[in-house]
Amino acid sequence: MNIPRTRSALRRRPLLLAVTTLALLAPLTACGGSDAAEGDGKTLRLWHYEQEDGALSKAWDAAIAEFKTTHPDVKVVFERKTFEQIQQNAGMILNSDKAPDVMEYNKGNATTGQLAKQGLLTDLTPLVKEHGWDRKISESASVTARYNDKGEMGGDTWYGIPNYGEFVLTYYNDDLFKKHGVDKPTDFASFEAALAKFKAAGITPLANAGNDHPAGHWLYLLALSEANNTWVDNYQRYLGKVEFHGPEMTYAVDKYQEWLDKGYFDKKDVGLKGSDMVEQFVSQKRPIMVGGNWWFGGLTTDIKNFQWSTAAYPGSERTLGSGGNNWVIPTKAKNKKLAEDFIAITMSDKIQKLIGEEGNVPLAAKPSDITDPKSRQLTEAFAQTQENDGLAFYPDWPVAGYYDTWVAATQNLMNGGKADSVLDELAAPYDKYVATRP
């Protein structure tokens, strides 16, 4: 699932710039002037696409500073790219003599998996074993770092190292809970009890948006509450047959329809975008928002007049999410050992703690290490999800173009569509792809 380009998210995402392959192939420039001799252990060429004021960029800046301290004779040539630059041109760049030594690259079969299949990425499995990162990163968080010979995630070979995670969790307006005498949910029964109590007070409890990812996220989350890891692997990794009219997806559409009928969702939200959903929460029109941790940083800035908190969604041990984007080392990198040293620094306790303090989700830090109260809550919720092996990826990942199908299907449901028609709508492109995949 692509992180939405919305008001809050844009603070942390690269600007959408139109660039050409020629711009990427041009001689690199960065702090310190022209490149030193390459391949001699004296130059580290590094690319990433995190926005300058974001939590991850701050962490990577600190990692670069640490690297310079531990490698005083090495010059760091850093290039901040846009997500689109690397996404569109990575294959060409990594197959040329302009490949960096280490770079951030998007996770998934069509990105890291595709380059690994083409032989453009270094096998990092020995490095993982040497440092014990397979013990620091949970099984579910590492799935998008590991690929098989077909370039499909979840294989045995590590081609990337994620340093952070992402997941869907619950945001609560604590003041509204207190004002209306509603107890904070601890399980699904108390969650539904809270929804009912808010509705009885004349408040639509759940923020939502039908013309964007949130409504589809809700539908998948409800299915996950009835699913096990085998179902997730079958759906996401094609390891077995997925029956869309089975108990998992049938429960999801039925429960979603029930909540629509009870007024826990507002049917009028069918045309809203993700930013509208966030505004419902920020403006205190809706006391509960279930959404990605990518909204967290914007909320800390936008919310001025009420107390709020976060927690893992109490209705399911599994939620949408994955390990973050990967640090990869191109096969044609000239200074792989330096790249390995840099990745090791990003996995250090110091940098992992900084990721958490800045409001993102570190993969290898304990919640108790984080001093900021809200950031610690976020890290605790992610830790709980990891303990349950509960990162279940995103509903649109298995099929190219499937995101639009999920949006259309959930809008159909919100507009009164029958459960069977919604399930058929979701099944058609999935079943077609699985039947024809190599």
From TrEMBL:
Could you tell me which Pfam families the record lists for this protein?
SBP_bac_1 (PF01547)
Which PANTHER family does the entry link to?
A: ARABINOSE-BINDING PROTEIN-RELATED (PTHR43649), DIACETYLCHITOBIOSE BINDING PROTEIN DASA (PTHR43649:SF12)
The signal peptide, as residue positions, is 1-32
Keywords in alphabetical order, please. Signal
What's the domain of life for this entry? Bacteria
Q: Which InterPro entries match?
A: Bact_solute-bd_prot1, SBP
Supply the name of the protein. Answer: Extracellular solute-binding protein
Q: Does the keyword Signal apply?
A: yes
